[in-house]
Amino acid sequence: MTIKTGDTFQFTAAHTTTAGVAIDLTGYTIFLDLTAKDGTVLLDAAVGSGITVTSAGDGLWETAETDTIAWPLGQIKFDIKYVTSGFVTHTETGILQV
């Protein structure tokens, strides 16, 4: 995924099983962190604070950040964490190119 500095970072995701079956997000808390190479946290979002579940039954959610003008050029790591009933799962760390 690539964006230009100053562009809106818009991210839509579907939480699914390894077989591609949607996981119902009812009762889930979702966290998304974007971190620069130097460790600076650029985005720290959660459901109700930057993340919107758009279709819980279909496992769909989204986030958008309009203030990216100060994001550094290069690779930014992003991590997604799902929490439900005390059970925590993470996705693989992704890379956003700025």
Set out the fold topology:
Elements lengths: L8 E6 L14 E7 L5 E7 L2 E6 L4 E6 L9 E10 L2 E4 L3 E4 L1
Parallel strand pairs: 3-4
Antiparallel strand pairs: 1-5, 2-3, 2-6, 4-5, 6-7, 6-8
Summarize the structure.
This protein has 98 residues and is mainly beta. Helix content is 0%, strand content 51%. The chain has no helices and 8 strands.
Notes on the protein architecture:
It is a single chain. The protein has 98 residues and is mainly β. 0% of the residues lie in helices and 51% in strands. Strands 1, 2, 3, 4, 5, 6, 7 and 8 form an 8-stranded mixed sheet that branches. It is elongated and about 35 Å long. The N and C termini lie close together (9 Å).
Name its key features:
mainly beta; elongated
Q: What average pLDDT do the residues reach?
A: 95
Termini separation comes to 9 Å
Number of E-type strands = 8
Kindly name the structural category.
Answer: mainly beta
Helical residues, percent: under 10%
Q: Please work out how many helical segments DSSP would assign.
A: 0
Rg measurement, Å: 14 Å
How can the largest sheet be summarized?
8 strands, mixed
User: SSE string, helix = H, strand = E?
Assistant: EEEEEEEE
Taking pLDDT < 50 over at least 5 consecutive residues as the criterion, the unreliable ranges are: none
Please report which band the strand proportion falls in: under 5%, 5-15%, 15-25%, 25-35%, 35-45% or over 45%: over 45%
Shape: elongated
